[in-house]
């Protein structure tokens, strides 16, 4: 029993001595891109993890129809009963100031995959109708 406790103490000491590292100097760390994408909803900015899923769902659904509905889960940010933001009715979708029609070119997964990495800003505005504005870093690069 005594040998077992000495062995445990020795292993504990060795593992603790190897676990301690140096302090990280933050000047050496360079962040090139944001870890979590942002989305602006009615003027409030959110770090929204599912932004790419939201855009893919929006572009593959018939957003131009009057019976269109899409729900955004905002439960990460609020503790109230109303954790969702609902987009319903005809929705105007603009990508780099170009309004998408029913026959837009972003219906395929391949086109959407090309679009997602170059998105810089997504905002949702509501007045009489809902407007989703997507700004990218490269205009006319998505052909």
Secondary-structure blueprint of this entry?
Elements: H1 2-19, E1 38-41, E2 44-47, H2 51-60, E3 69-73, E4 84-88, E5 91-95, E6 98-99, H3 109-115, E7 119-126, E8 130-136
Parallel strand pairs: 1-7, 5-8
Antiparallel strand pairs: 1-2, 3-4, 5-6, 7-8
Report the strand count: 8
Instruction: Work out the helix count.
Output: 3
Number of domains: 1
- Any idea what the radius of gyration is? 24 Å
Distance separating the two termini: 73 Å
Shape: elongated
Kindly state the percentage of residues in helix: 10-25%
Q: Class by helix and strand content? A: alpha/beta
Order of strands, main sheet, comes to: 2-1-7-8-5-6
The fraction of residues in strands falls at 25-35%
The mean pLDDT is: 79
Poorly predicted regions are none
Could you give the order of the helices and strands? HEEHEEEEHEE
Major sheet characteristics: 6 strands, mixed
List keywords for this structure.
143 residues, alpha/beta, six-stranded mixed β-sheet, two-stranded antiparallel ribbon, 3 helices
Describe the overall structure:
This protein is of the alpha/beta class and 143 residues long. The chain has three helices and eight strands. The chain has a six-stranded mixed beta sheet with strand order 2-1-7-8-5-6, with no helix packed on it. A two-stranded antiparallel ribbon has the order 3-4. The longest helix is centred in the N-terminal third of the chain and has 18 residues, at 2-19. The chain is elongated.
């Amino acid at each position: 029993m005594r040998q077992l406790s000495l062995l445990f103490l020795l292993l504990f000491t060795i593992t603790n001595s190897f676990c301690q590292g140096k302090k990280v100097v933050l000047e050496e760390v360079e962040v090139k891109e944001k870890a979590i994408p942002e989305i602006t909803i009615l003027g409030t900015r959110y770090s929204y993890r599912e932004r790419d899923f939201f855009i893919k769902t929006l572009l593959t659904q018939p957003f131009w129809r009057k019976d269109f509905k899409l729900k955004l889960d905002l439960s990460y940010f609020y503790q109230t009963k109303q954790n969702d933001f609902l987009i319903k009715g005809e929705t105007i979708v603009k990508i780099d100031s170009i309004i998408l029609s029913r026959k837009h070119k972003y219906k395929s997964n391949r086109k959407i995959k090309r679009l997602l990495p170059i998105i810089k800003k997504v905002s949702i505005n509501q007045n009489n109708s809902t407007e989703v504005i997507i700004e990218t870093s490269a205009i006319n690069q998505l052909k």
